From TrEMBL, chain B:
PANTHER family: PEPTIDASE U32 FAMILY, UBIQUINONE BIOSYNTHESIS PROTEIN UBIU. It comes from Rhodomicrobium udaipurense. This is U32 family peptidase.
From TrEMBL, chain C:
It comes from Rhodomicrobium udaipurense. This is Ubiquinone biosynthesis protein UbiV. Forms a heterodimer with UbiU. One of its GO terms (biological process) is ubiquinone biosynthetic process. Pathway: Cofactor biosynthesis; ubiquinone biosynthesis. Coiled coil: none annotated. It holds the Pfam family Peptidase_U32. PANTHER family: PEPTIDASE U32 FAMILY, UBIQUINONE BIOSYNTHESIS PROTEIN UBIV. Its cofactor is [4Fe-4S] cluster.
Amino acid sequence: MKPSNLPAPLVRGAMTVAPPFVLARAIDALLRKMERAHPRLFKNLARLKPYVIHVEPSDLPHRFALKFGGDEKAFVRLLDPRDETPGDACIKGNIDVLLNLLQGRIDGDALFFTRGLVIAGDTAAVVALRNTLDREEIDLFADVTSMFGPLQKPAERALTAIGRAREAARHRAAEFIDSLREDKTADAAAPAWVNERDALKAELKTLQTRIAKLEVREKLAKGASQDPAHS
Amino acid sequence: MTHHSLELLSPAGNPAALRAAIEAGADAVYCGFADRTNARNYPGLNFDVDEMVEGVAFAHSKGAKVLVAINTFPPAGEMKSWKDAIDNAAMAGADAVILADIGVLDYAANKHPNLRRHLSVQASAANPLSINYYRDQFGVKRVVLPRILSVDEVAHVAKETGMEIEVFGYGSVGPMSEGRCFLSSYMTGLSPTSEGACAPASHVTYKEEGDFVLSCLGDVVLNRVAKGEGAAYPTPCKARYVACGKAGYIFEEPIALNALDILPELKKAGVTALKIEGRQRSKAYVAEVVSAFRKALDAVETGETRSTDDLSDLSEGGRQTFGAYKKGWR
Amino acid sequence: MPNENAKTAKLTLGPLLHHWTPEARRDFYFRAADEMPVDSVYVGEVICSKREPFFQDHLPEVIDRLKSAGKEVVMSTLALVTQPREVKAIREAADADLIVEANDVACLEALHGRPHIIGPFINVFNEGARDFVAKNGAFRVVLPVEAPATSIKVLADNAGKLEIEVLVFGKQTLSIAMRCYHARANGLTKDSCQFVCGLDPNGLNATTVTGDDILTINGTSTMSNGYGVLLHELDALRTMGVTHFRLSPQAVDMVDVARLFRDTLDGKLAPGEAEAKLRPLTEPVPYVNGFYYGRVGLSWNDRHAA
């Protein structure tokens, strides 16, 4: 089953307005909830080497420390703003990207070529965490809404509505961007300038190769008498 | 099932990815044990023995196969882990093992003659003579061809050897002859051939330098990219160096192989199985790439022409290539 | 016992990996025959089959000269075989009347178990692989450049009659490919290469974007920037059971290099003295020995001083 989207604006909003102690308590509750839902995840995290990773959402006033490995139970805590102790590694990015990472939608390779995600420090710690999260089907949506207890249904409905509006907007944006893509418009009509462009490109390539060949010939002519002991 | 169609072979870095791949339409998956016996030995990745047993059972219940990669080269005096891996793959009921080392092949052929043996791309067998050697000496049934041959060369090898041929259809491009590239250990001291990790994350660092980011492997600077510029994972063969007074990707651009649009040509060349690279990648990647290839392969079978899915967002550097399959790559 | 080993320690001249002019190559082998204190000389092209025709006509006289000087002559073969004409060349080399160094498994198939040498481009990293190739006709194995001392020790120990060879001088080949990077760096491709690799008798330098020397491009191969040098380790290698010590031809005075290694093997020179004499011959190229110590390959470890 495909996990649903937990709307990032809502998370951002809630986390910005919530006072630190409320947030800390909410994190504890979510962690306990996840431990019940994903015992294997916690077992796998404990098996890793011990690491502390700082998570710094660029669009939030808070930072978090995630501690796992070394045969101890993993936990997350809110970092005191004055706390300067560095972690083994640090992940920076906006809430949207971080939520995708947590739910296994960004992979080990993409970690390094995804815009808007900055990894610093011990890269192995982040890869270990990413790979371990990927072993689980994590649906934050379900985990968060189930925390509302009797209010789960209304909460789900509210979240779904926000999520849907957001998805629709995203879909429209994606369609628009698609329509701007050069290859798609070219495929559709293949106007004359495309052929001309390709012909010119080919000609340029041929000329570049010819120049390179001539340059090499010149170098070889000069270099033939060179002492091979000269490196 | 579709008997004569190309077998679609998906990576599975963990049990969740194995299920995702099979549900997305993979005919087979390949995976490895969580140690250095395979070439994707990264922290948190791969299967323990119990997970392998469950994975094989799940795959078989869905009519899919599981191939176990045991494709690194044991260092002298340390062959036990590799022998254990083969014994465990046999015990788990794996459909084949993918091997590269002569010593490991010899062990598997003698100890488990009925366990199917495939030759890993790590063995770098790129011509009919080499392939025949592995067939004659170790009873290898299938060869995974290096990502350095053109479609015509693939066809030639298939014809000359009569072996099952597996080629890469999607993922990272390996410009070097694999299994004997020592660039990563030259920079990190850890050998991909025996430790199973090229450019291990433990040795990768990023340094910010104004508007640029330097990516380093060990003490070696592999690239300087503008923030936001597409860049590959920092391996030595996809780094930017300066030669002849010019800075550039002297080995390979940050680009992904995508053979989605040349599947009929590969089939005609005599290819048996199409492999997707990326056990280190997410189950989301696996699901998306597998279903795109499933659709395209089914279309090849029915002979219909349809536009293929766009996978460029999943590609290294966001760019794609036919790699060595088309002339001119060299 | 060490004296016994000293007598049997053979010095070899590995195949020329760079593309020198036919004349330079011929003269180099003549000097090897006349002046170099080496026991074996490996000839033949390992890196690129396109280079082969250049030297074809000179080979017979070079081989004769080396043989009459009492050298063992070995025909090294290609490290990466893909083209049908390369397969044909491998078959011919295997059938010719010379000892062959196999660098691609293709060569083993063509040899059909006839006695041969396993070159450094065929992975023999463990006793399983070693015993298999020995059973099938290999009488000598040149270990991969990446093999650390811990592996060399296991492989050379209990090797029986099998001879073990290790590279002790020269740039270490780190990878081989289908593409020609030498051509690519010059704006050309392999098919239109103009033999541009001939411009650089010691390879083409590649630095990092921050300007550090790091790699050497040599045709389709990539090498270490520094020379691999195992002078201080010769004694340890010999004790482990290594029988052959390879010098890889570089564009330096190889006769002097060979004499320094021979004298060190014979105990006439201390390793430290030999290194002090070697440095001026090879400047400004740095030395590396990291693979031997199981460390970062490009590092130079002075621990032998302890």
